[in-house]
């Protein structure tokens, strides 16, 4: 029996643990500071929309992970209703003036009318000018999924437990300390899915990792579809996106992408701009007055995306005498790239253990 210890219980950690737990001769355990159900500034996964809006550049590892992830999200949505995922139409609007801005760069691939994922996401079409907002130059629509994170994360955790995964809370100061949390007393492989904390964890201390602050408002109002634009008039790091979560999860209104900010408290002025922009883009949110006062607010939230210069890090490394597989740095794309990334981390871990695994990418 081979022993694997996964560090982190966000979307990347849980997906990787589940992938590994399907091997009956691998004993998987999870240790994490935060768990599904927690709301903490360090724990990005609960704050996400979350959906499938590909942004990886062609040929990048992120693009490969996103492409590999869609069929699994589609399968879960179709066959496992209790996972908290539903199909929803997306409308993506682009403005040429946003090129080079923080959000313009963020959504550069997403907003292309000849996007690489046009043959991946169902029902992809280019919108005629008559369907575009007045200030937008391009537009596409396709069928995507939106995920209720409060349901989806516990569902994956439950699947892990069903497969015999042991789950513990713990705070590590060095990545090597994870090994001792395994029920066997030592892990043959540690899988590092620590997200933003990879920048602070000794033994890793990845200086390429930094926070990408996002702010959202969760409301009860229903949008019916998902929407986004490539930028706003309110600042180069502010964005407009609307995502209606599955099974009563409310509608996420966002947002911003503030590189390097660790600020945990919502900015009330930004919140007002977010809500008004969302209503302007989707009047269905406030059909009677078109005003923010018509929104029924569940909560304001701030999440720190685990950004990484160079994109996600999915590779193996020997730290001291301990093999580690890194799987972190997915920025705001963990849900839409998580399964592809998990399968690559699974392949690397099995490679270290001397197992054979069919590549899924």
From TrEMBL:
SUPFAM superfamilies: FAD-linked reductases, C-terminal domain (SSF54373), Nucleotide-binding domain (SSF51971). Keywords: FAD, Flavoprotein, Oxidoreductase. Its cofactor is FAD. It comes from the Eukaryota. FAD binds at residue 194. GO terms for cellular component: cytoplasm. One of its GO terms (biological process) is D-amino acid catabolic process. InterPro entries: D-amino_acid_oxidase_CS (IPR006181), DAO (IPR023209), FAD-dep_OxRdtase (IPR006076). One of its GO terms (molecular function) is D-amino-acid oxidase activity. D-dopa binds at residues 241, 332. It holds the Pfam family DAO. PANTHER family: D-AMINO ACID OXIDASE (PTHR11530), D-AMINO ACID OXIDASE (AFU_ORTHOLOGUE AFUA_5G11290) (PTHR11530:SF16). Belongs to the DAMOX/DASOX family. This is FAD dependent oxidoreductase. It comes from Setomelanomma holmii.
